[in-house]
Design goal:
Chain lengths: 452, 188
């Protein structure tokens, strides 16, 4: 079975692709740093966000009930789905009742996770993604590689080519302004024609019985306003207790994601317009199971800003598709193994434990520690490949006593001196690197000599 | 319906109860929120105008936009019928009820807009706001916006013209919503 290393190696074969992804993601990280520096109470905000989330999770049943009751009182139809299948069936039923032949959808990682698009297409209803980047990857029949910027792995030339193929635009014009206008013109017509708008949810405010959606392009508000039916899908972890908690998260979200002080549109939907209907589908799909896992439940605090992915040197150089999961990056490496130990077992190992993700996380999820904790569990439950188990057993043997460690050091220094080429060929470390020259002695020996 | 199944699974797995923290209070700022609003607005791609004569300023903004269609002024109550039409507009003029300096954002509600997408679908959005409506932090902003959410099903913060950076992180202003965003401070 292919794991993260194999998929990342595949991605890394194309040096331009690696360079594009790395540069694009680092741009986002740098913008985030500037935005963070302009907020004097940033660290206090992170703490507040973390505390609110921890409290909410500890009373999640209460807040879900409160939200559902107030939303119902506001005239919103509330549905519950225990898994992806039930969620997709609810959407399909609503679309069939509305007799639609095509539907528009704004960006929603939950519907990605539920594989809603292929499901609806199999049932004869094509889905048009209306986020610009997501539309581009949809036309290329790819999955989004990043939760905030789905086409971050592509350069403008590739996008120009894709649009020329599908939307008959000028293949030689790769100006981002032109490319944006090509996609948005095509989308505007489709959005206006669509009777139903599918959207995600950023926050569901329990006391308000309403949802909040954050976007920059304007596609959500266009789609919801021009359609007769709005169907919003949310995971159970999107709940926050009070309206007063909302600004804590909103002040962190866009700054962490793009470096802008806020998203352009922060839209609050607390009921249907006079002439329309509104549905909210509350989805579990494995979340309650993650909630029950006390070692990893903090992953449910995630507000989907993508900052951990942007700062991660493994994600930047291995690409988002290497995760093979709807949420890429360090947070994906915690959520995915909870769903399938074997399929996603390699993800927590795709990490150097540098801790940068934990430092930038706006809700203080200790991501790198959760990676380590997953490694322990996967190893103890036998979900780690034989190669890795053997390597860990060898390391364990060597590091167990000082004598063995010293002996191994000596052997390695000697081997490096005599046959550096052979060692580089034997070790995966040597694949893309020259091994360093061997030091004449160990630090321990050097220290002993110089202590006097 | 899986309501009970979901809630029971949550009950079975939730951690021990933790206290609800009191609402967050942001540090006080002594400087002028209006000046800060104008500064941030420029960063997010909006245009700042101070109007001593409102009609003149609005005419100066909307005049050059005539090629994009008619202007719709929603600041006067009589226009609520017109607002239902989906004709493309060069500019829509609305009242901003709250301004938040730290984000350059204004709260726009649907009162006069039967079809709430007008502030998004027009070429330029023009928001008229008073000095008294502008506060420093988003926390203060929500304290004021809360009243509108009580009785209106829709309301939004708008912080600049629509944008995307989906192509190589290059900023493109005017994605699917408005291409221009003007805030007019009414001083008279």
């Amino acid at each position: 079975m292919k794991g993260h290393p194999e998929r990342a190696a595949e991605f890394a074969k194309d040096a331009t692709r690696v360079e594009t992804t790395d540069r694009n993601m680092w741009t986002a990280r740098s913008s985030r740093d500037r935005a963070r520096a302009a907020v004097p109470d940033w660290e206090e905000l992170r703490t507040a966000a973390s505390t609110i989330k921890a409290h909410t999770m500890s009373r999640l049943d209460h807040y879900l009930t409160q939200f559902a009751d107030s939303a119902t009182a506001n005239g919103i139809h509330v549905h519950w789905a225990k898994d992806a299948e039930e969620h997709n069936q609810i959407v399909l039923k609503l679309l069939r009742e509305a007799e639609v032949t095509e539907v528009v959808k704004s960006k929603s990682m939950l519907t990605e996770e539920c594989e809603l698009n292929p499901f609806l297409e199999r049932n004869g209803i094509p889905v048009i993604d209306t986020d610009l980047g997501e539309r581009v990857v949809q036309l290329r029949e790819e999955a989004p590689s990043h939760i905030v910027t789905p086409a971050i792995h592509l350069n403008r030339g590739q996008i120009a080519q894709t649009l020329a193929e599908h939307l008959r635009s000028d293949p030689d014009n790769d100006d981002p302004h032109y490319l944006t206008s090509v996609v948005s013109k095509d989308l505007r017509g489709r959005i206006h024609r669509s009777k139903v708008a599918l959207t995600g949810v950023n926050y569901a405010v329990a006391e308000l019985g309403g949802i909040v959606i954050c976007t920059n392009e304007g596609n959500v508000d266009l789609a919801v306003a021009t359609s007769d039916i709005h169907i919003a899908s949310m995971g159970i972890e999107k709940i926050i207790p009070r309206l007063a908690d909302l600004p804590v998260f909103l002040r962190l979200l866009a700054r962490s994601a793009t470096g802008m002080p806020s998203t352009i549109y922060t839209s609050h939907f607390t009921g249907p317009r006079q002439d329309s209907t509104m549905h909210v589908i509350i989805v579990d799909n494995g979340r309650s199971q993650l909630l029950a896992d006390e070692d990893h439940r903090e992953a449910l605090h995630c507000i989907r800003c993508g900052a951990c992915a942007n700062t991660c040197h493994v994600t930047r150089r291995g690409g988002g598709h290497a995760y093979d999961f709807s949420t890429s990056g360090p947070i994906g490496s915690i959520v995915a193994p909870a769903r399938d130990h074997d399929r996603y077992g390699s993800l927590p190992f795709a990490c150097t434990l540098c801790g940068s993700c934990s430092d930038v996380c706006p809700v203080r999820i200790p991501l790198h520690r959760l990676h380590l904790s997953w490694r322990r569990r996967l190893l103890s439950q036998g979900h780690v490949s034989a190669d890795k188990r053997r390597l860990l057993a060898q390391m364990n043997m060597v590091l167990r006593t000082p004598q063995r460690y010293r002996l191994a050091g000596k052997a390695l220094r000697t081997a490096l001196r005599i046959a550096p080429g052979l060692l580089a060929r034997l070790s995966p470390w040597g694949k893309q690197r020259d091994l360093p020259p061997a030091p004449p002695e160990s630090f321990r020996d050097w220290y002993r000599k110089h202590r006097k | 319906m899986s309501r009970d199944a979901v809630l029971n699974a949550v009950r079975a797995g939730k951690p021990p109860k933790l206290p609800l923290p009191p609402p967050y209070s942001a540090p006080e700022r002594a400087d002028d929120p209006v000046a800060e609003f104008a500064r941030i607005l420029t960063i997010v791609g909006g245009h700042w105008h101070v109007a001593t004569d409102l009609a003149t300023t609005l005419a100066e903004i909307t005049g050059p936009l005539a090629e994009h269609g008619p202007v719709l002024d929603c600041t006067s109550a009589e226009t609520s019928e017109v607002a239902k039409s989906a004709t493309p507009r060069s500019a829509v003029i609305v009242d901003g009820r709250v301004g938040v300096a730290e984000m350059g954002a204004v709260w726009v509600g649907p009162t006069l807009l039967a079809r709430s997408y007008l502030p998004v679908v027009c070429h330029a959005l023009v928001v008229v706001i008073t000095r008294e409506a502008i506060v420093h932090s988003l926390h203060e902003g929500y304290a004021r916006a809360a009243q509108y959410l009580e009785d209106e099903p829709y309301g939004m913060w708008i912080a600049g013209p629509s944008k995307t950076a989906d192509i190589e992180k290059t900023l493109v202003i005017g994605a699917q919503g408005t291409a221009a965003h003007h805030i007019v401070l009414k001083t008279c």
